[in-house]
Each structure stands twice: as C-alpha cells, then as structure tokens.
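User: I'm new to structure prediction. If I give you an amino acid sequence, what do you actually give back? Let's try with this one:
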Amino acid sequence: MTVNAVTHLNFRGDARAALTFYHSVFGGELTVVTYGDMGDTSDPSLTDQMMWGQVVSPGGVGLMAYDVPPQLPWDRGAHAFYVSLRSGSADELTALWERLDDGATVLRPLGPEKWTSLYGMLEDKFGVIWVMDVVTAYAPS
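Assistant: Good question. You get back a string of structure tokens that encode the predicted 3D arrangement of the chain. For your 141 residues, that looks like this:
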C-alpha cells in the first residue's frame, strides 16, 4: 500500500482563486466541487464556494483546499504550517519561485545557505508560506 501526504489548505471564500493560482504555477489537473454542486443549499452564500478541490501536478505536487463555511470557526493562524517544496534541481525550484512570487511577500530571498545551494521562503497572496530548497546531503562543518 502507498500513502501520500497531501497539503490541505483551508480558506474563507478564497479557495477557488487559490487553487486556480496554484494550478497556474504547478500545472496538472484542477478539480473544483462547490457546495452547490453537492446540493448543499442550506446557506445560499456558499453555493459557488468550494466544498472540495485539488490540484495534482505531473511533478508530484498535490494540494487540496476548501472554503470553511461561516458556521465553523476559522483562523489562518500565524505559522500554523508551511508548504515545503524540495527538488534536486535549482532550475526547477527557481521557476516555481518566480511563478509563486506573484503578489507574494518574500520572507527569505531565494539563495544559497550553509546547508544547501538554494533556499528561500515566501508568503503568497493567499497567506500560504512556501519554503523551497534544493535537496543536498547535509554535512556539518
């Protein structure tokens, strides 16, 4: 049996826009299911919001998301999670960084660090913090 860990992002009204953006960054398949699609008419304001959605890229990135309904508590939190993208290719990470940097706040510029040839951290326009690094064997000096 194979188990995959997939990052699940929770939003309040921005899930479709976020997954559409991530689809533009990573490519692959975008799936969007709204509350209306599932016949949930208990709150008309939710009809077009996402009950569930996902992006699955050919490169292996998987993201799920939904819009938390107003009757449930929701708080984006501070540093509640990071999404980490790791690759053996600096070129691949740099290309993803450039696409995610649309309206983002750079928290740590993409560049070399003691433990890797390339590392960076940014908070995208949806408040999600992305950490990127080139996977290298760490050897303390």
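You can read the tokens as a compact description of the fold. Here is one thing that stands out. The mean pLDDT is 89.
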